[in-house]
Design brief:
Strand content: under 5%
Largest sheet: none
Shape: globular
């Protein structure tokens, strides 16, 4: 049996394990290890006496592969970004941010829901975790909307959809994971997420205003705030702005050289938020809780990475990514149509898998195919299919697939953000939340279409570096 056939059989078995409910980390790790043993033993013509040697070689590869990647400095960004989010919560920056958005944007139709979207976008700028964002604002924003008479399903949908913005707006853990898997520049990817993330928030806000203007009972505006009250709400939310500015200048300084690495910027941002949390009365128990939650989420992400990296190494030996790239480029279809089909496949796959696991499992095969469609890793913009150089195509595709990962966080039946919001609120069922997020499917589809049609939305900031 050739290596491609072995790769297909093992990948099929892994998908079956995932669909049957096995955790992605364990399914990928097990499939990768079995595949390595199979490939090695196949190379020995299935000689029974050589099975032990094939097993020994595979154990070494499976043991060394995760360590070689996880020891990279760039992975330290993930716990730092997650810690910023939890410290910001205990520093009450989320409440201050929501209050500021309410005073400044509450007067528009559906004002409280619009304020929630902008507040989640602001919190996303200091938190790399969508789940944490959804959980925090389910406690803060939903009670406020229910007091004003909002439909509870719609209120829950606003929070669940707004929470997805943390996947795109830096600091984003998923963008860091993408950069590691495809070996691209983390700083440029983080920069690339700012404008699409803000654009997504504006599209959400426009959808809410349109719904509120059409159905007058959906979201009454919040009025009565004076200009003095509005400006008074800004200083408590300034630490979030400070963290965003620091991270930007550590990635890209428009006035000169960058101040340092993204990891260093994230660490300084975490220290600022930590000092603010102490100033606002954070106790040892809350700090302990923030550290424990950060550790739990970090371990979960790292475990997935470890398992998937074993599977990725197996795919490399099986030459499945090369075969898939050759097949994709041989199709008699336009590259743009093939890209759209790939994105639609992500939408379907995201209905059954979590966002991080989905990206980690598919990128080793899909990413080389997309790069081949464009003309290769080192193609110039003039000779490319999508009108951009190889490095720019890698960034553009990264933002597209992360946006698809956002979309998958609210799609049934696995939409994680919907389960989180329902878990935080005893008065909501998962079905209520899924009904509430349905209008936001349209907004996400429009955003993805805009990012595909106008790549400059994604590439303008990275092109300045």
């Amino acid at each position: 049996m050739d290596s491609i056939s072995i790769g297909l059989w093992v990948s099929g078995g892994m998908l079956v394990m995932v669909l049957l409910g096995m955790r992605v980390a364990f399914a990928a790790g097990m499939a990768g290890f079995v595949g390595l043993v199979w490939l090695r033993w196949n190379g020995f013509d299935y000689d029974p006496e050589k099975f032990g040697k094939a097993l020994q070689i595979s154990v070494r590869i499976a043991g060394l592969t995760p360590q070689s990647k996880v020891s990279a400095n760039v992975l330290s960004l993930i716990p730092v970004f997650i810690l910023i989010g939890y410290l910001a919560y205990y520093a009450h920056l989320t409440t201050a941010l929501f209050e500021a958005c309410k005073r400044w944007f509450g007067w528009v139709p559906g004002g409280l829901a619009v304020s929630t979207v902008f507040a989640t976008a602001g919190f996303a700028a200091v938190s790399g975790a969508s789940v944490a964002t959804a959980a925090v604002f389910a406690r803060i924003a939903i009670p406020e909307m229910l007091k004003l008479g909002y439909n509870k399903q719609f209120a829950a949908g606003v929070v669940a959809a707004g929470g997805t913005l943390a996947s795109l707006i830096p600091p984003s853990a998923i963008l860091v994971i993408y950069a590691i898997i495809v070996e691209q520049d983390v700083g440029k990817l983080l920069l690339a997420g700012f404008i699409p993330g803000a654009f997504s928030a504006i599209v959400y806000a426009g959808l809410i205003i349109g719904i509120a203007m059409t159905f007058k009972t959906v979201g009454p505006p919040v009025r009565g705030f004076t200009w003095t009250q509005r400006f008074a709400s800004l200083p408590p939310a300034l630490p979030i702005v400070a963290v965003v500015v620091i991270i930007i200048f550590f990635v890209y300084n428009p006035f000169g050289d960058a101040w340092g690495t993204p990891t260093e910027g994230g660490a300084i941002g975490a220290f600022i938020v930590f000092c603010m949390a102490l100033y606002r009365g954070m106790r040892w128990g809350q700090l302990k809780e923030a550290l424990l939650e950060t550790a739990k989420l970090t371990v979960m992400i790292f475990t997935i990475i470890w398992g998937v990296l074993i599977y990725v190494r197996f795919l490399g030996f099986a030459k499945l990514p090369d075969a898939f790239s050759d097949w994709i480029t041989s199709l008699e279809m336009s590259p743009m149509l093939i890209l759209v089909c790939i994105l639609l496949a992500y939408a379907v796959l995201g209905m059954f898998m979590d966002a991080i696991g989905m990206l980690l499992l598919t990128l080793p095969v899909v990413y080389p195919a997309v790069m081949a469609l464009n003309g290769g890793e080192y193609v110039s913009a003039a000779d490319s299919a999508f009108g951009m150089s190889g490095p720019m195509c890698a960034i553009w595709f990264g933002i597209l697939v992360v946006k698809m990962a956002e979309f998958c966080l609210i799609t049934p039946p696995i939409g994680l953000n919907c389960f989180v919001v329902a878990g935080v609120r005893d008065d909501l069922t998962v079905q209520d939340v899924f009904k509430g997020v349905m209008p936001f499917f349209v907004a996400d589809a429009a955003t993805i279409a805009a990012l595909v049609a106008f790549p400059g939305i994604v590439l303008w900031l990275p092109s300045l570096v």
